[in-house]
Design a protein that fits this description.
- With 182 residues, this protein is an all-alpha fold.
- It is 68% helix and 0% strand.
Length: 182
């Protein structure tokens, strides 16, 4: 069984671009955490209103759902920066350093293409909700462009972090998959 990766956080190596992306990803992580805290606070308030005051809730459930989804999307770059996404390293461990480098470039490039496609479609979807002024079909009637903004913002920041990861490997600031050459 493979051991822990030697890289816990994406390395910047003093590179200004990598440092800027690291700051943006960390800021996104803090925003994501704040959204989770807000969702928990709103849930507690909703429970108090419903079961203690015996009142009805109007906006709380919808707000918690949007905050949870937003926190997930906005948190993508931070989790990538911390190397927290699922990683299967069986193949990279079996490869020689040069092949591991090529595989890392290939997988990061493929990830960048896929996330760029997601960014494009999420922006189109967000823009449609903005342009047509769509509102939710609930009593609260929130303008949907507000919660849907998490889609293009989250994917854009995630794409930026993936590009930074690729740059770090190409510039040899980081080892492919965080694995040392044996």
């Amino acid at each position: 069984m493979a051991g822990q990766s030697s890289v816990a956080v994406a390395q910047t190596g003093g590179n200004p671009f990598l440092r800027l992306v690291a700051v943006l990803s960390t800021l996104a992580g803090w925003c994501s955490a704040a959204m989770i805290v807000a969702a928990i606070a709103i849930t507690c308030q909703m429970i108090f209103v419903r079961f203690v005051l015996n009142g009805s809730t109007i906006w709380q459930t919808e707000a918690v759902i949007y905050l949870a989804i937003g926190a997930t999307l906005i948190g993508l770059p931070y989790v990538q920066r911390l190397r927290g996404h699922v990683n299967v390293d069986l193949i990279p461990l079996a490869l020689k350093p040069r092949a591991r480098f090529v595989l890392a470039i290939f997988t990061l490039s493929l990830s960048i293409v896929m996330v760029a496609i997601m960014l494009w479609h999420s922006y189109e979807f967000w823009h449609l909700t903005w342009e047509r002024n769509w509102k939710s079909d609930t009593v609260w009637g929130v303008r949907l462009w507000i919660p849907y903004l998490a889609l293009p913002v989250g994917f854009a920041l995630f794409l930026l972090q993936l590009v930074a990861d690729l740059v770090a490997i190409v510039l040899k600031i980081e080892k492919p998959f965080g694995l040392e050459d044996v």
